[in-house]
Amino acid sequence: MTTITLLLLACRAVPLAETPPIQDFELGQEEGAGNVVAVQAWMDPSAYASERNYDTRLRGYLDEAQQRGWLQDDTLVVLPEQIASWLFLLGEPDRVINAETAEQALRRMVPGHLVDYLALTKDAPAEDPYQYALFALKAESVADVWQRVSASIAVDYGITLFAGSAWLPGPELVDGQLQVDTTEPIRNVSFVVGPDGEILGDLTMKVFPSSGEQLLVEPADIADLRTIPTSLGEIAVLLGEDAWYPNAWRAIRDSKPVVAISPYWSSPFGAWVDRWGGYSGFERPPDVPREDEKELLLSEAFLAHGLPGRLSDHDVLEGVTVPLRGRLYDLGTDGAIIGVLGAVATEGPLVDAPVLLNLWLPQAS
Length: 365
Fold this sequence. Notes:
Number of domains: 1
CATH architecture: 4-Layer Sandwich
Order of helices and strands: HEEEHEHHHHHEEEEEEEHEHHHEEEEE
Shape: globular
Distance between the termini: 56 Å
Radius of gyration: 19 Å
Number of strands: 17
Number of helices: 11
């Protein structure tokens, strides 16, 4: 048994904090073609302190959707980007979970894992070896808990679940199990679980991480971008900034996805109504006017150049883009759900709270 596993077992449970009231909105009408439920999850450090807390918090959102009659055999539930990255807090005591700032939490966390942490910084395959060590420290436990909770939820609610994403080193799917390798670069990785609890298709990894994310995250190969087969049909998964690049859409266009999803993470608080600032980490696509990078607000840029503005150009008429919100120390989160039905985009409420969107898919014409 590893040192990390012993530490996880030894730490007592941290109480799960309450969430703000859940808001919701709905697009379309039931036509028997299935639906997509986007979950703007509101998360805080206590939700990541244990497997039980993570499971309980997510089930709270699914219970609300179920009470509204939104969870059916042909339902796809979509969680936000980065929702599972914070599972590196697994097993941490109150003084870490209740820290006021991320820096303070890190200072309190590292001494308890100092030998393993320092070992991981040596020859770390990332520009920032200390951040790499933080996310590699409990990577095996994170992968296990993330997959186990996601599979259990999909089975218990009888749904297809896009499980969000996480920063994990060397992620790989081996005989249906998510595995990691702490000698390999970190990827922003995601997966989809079917109603039987099995991962559908292959892992999806982010191709266009921003310049800030690239301090830690290695870009994936666009040639590996694939749609995922589900009971709804093929779905396109474009993590965060991937939905802003025409090349990513072209990579999945031939599979003719019935719906596209783009979970994202936006920080700090207030970014949604601030200037966009333009593309980061990769060149601006030629179809984006240079002046847009200076003039558009982030919310306007999402509508023009993110998933809502691009999917119909690639023969997809329905989609959702959904953010992670919550109190994640002092980092701040921002953004709103945007649902697209018949190529028409509708923005949900801009609130630092949980929001559920139910999008009924239309019958194919």
